[in-house]
Design a protein that fits this description.
Number of domains: 2
Radius of gyration: 19 Å
Order of helices and strands: HHHHH
Largest sheet: none
Strand content: under 5%
Number of strands: 0
Distance between the termini: 48 Å
Length: about 120
C-alpha cells in the first residue's frame, strides 16, 4: 500500500511538471520539471518513505522496462540497419557529453563545498 502512495506521488509530481510547462510555456520536458519538484518534495520525511518504497520496487524490476525498447528496435530493424552508424555515433557522443558535464558539475560542487578532497 505504501508503494502505491509513492507511485501516486511520483505521478502527481509528473502531472504538476507537465502543468507548469504548459501554463508557463517553458522549453523543458514536463517529467524533468516533475523530477525537480520531486527533489524539492523529498525534504519532507513523510514523502520520503513512500517514494523510497516505489523506487525500490521499480529498481527491482528495472529489466522489465527495457522490453519496450527491445521490441522497438526489432520492429524498426530496417531503420537500425540503415542508420546504425549514425545512431551509434550519436549514442556514444551523447553519453560522453553527459559524463563530461556530470564530471564538471561534480568538480565544481566539490570546490564550492566545505568537504576536503584530494584535487585541492
Amino acid at each position: 500500500m505504501i508503494a502505491l502512495r509513492g507511485l501516486a506521488i511520483l505521478l502527481l509530481l509528473q502531472i504538476a511538471g507537465e502543468g507548469l510547462i504548459r501554463v508557463l510555456g517553458l522549453p523543458f520536458p514536463g517529467p524533468v520539471v516533475g523530477l525537480v519538484l520531486l527533489l524539492i518534495a523529498l525534504r519532507w520525511a513523510w514523502l520520503r518513505e513512500p517514494v523510497a518504497a516505489i523506487a525500490e520496487m521499480l529498481l527491482t524490476h528495472l529489466s522489465l522496462l527495457f522490453i519496450p525498447v527491445g521490441v522497438g528496435v526489432i520492429t524498426h530493424l530496417g531503420l537500425v540497419s540503415q542508420f546504425g552508424w549514425q545512431l551509434l555515433l550519436v549514442i556514444v557522443l551523447s553519453t560522453w557529453t553527459g559524463l563530461a558535464v556530470t564530471a564538471l558539475v561534480f568538480r565544481r560542487l566539490l570546490r564550492s563545498s566545505d568537504l576536503p578532497n584530494e584535487t585541492s
